[in-house]
Amino acid sequence: MTTIIILGVAMFTFVILALVFILLAAKAKLVNTEAVTIGINGDPTLAMRVPAGSTLLNTLANQKIFIPSACGGKAAAACAR
């Protein structure tokens, strides 16, 4: 009986670890981590290169470009109106 429990726990742990590694590999392959270029109104002098991973609203605010947003950059239903 004890062997079955230990074997079950070992298999469960193995499956969970395999899923974690699959998710990490998928994230590394699918998620952009390089810097991105943001263009404003097609003006090349206003283009900026910033690290990926932040919201557009926060990135612009960090560059001292403030845009009013009812949802705070979360793309909630209030912004879609």
From TrEMBL:
| Classification via InterPro entries | 2Fe-2S_ferredoxin-like_sf, Beta-grasp_dom_sf
Superkingdom, taxonomy of origin: Bacteria
Q: Name one GO molecular function term.
A: iron-sulfur cluster binding
Q: Where would you find the membrane-spanning parts of this chain?
A: 6-26
Q: Which UniProt keywords apply?
A: FAD, Flavoprotein, Membrane, Transmembrane, Transmembrane helix
Question: What name goes with this protein?
Answer: Uncharacterized protein
Source organism of this protein record: Nannocystis pusilla
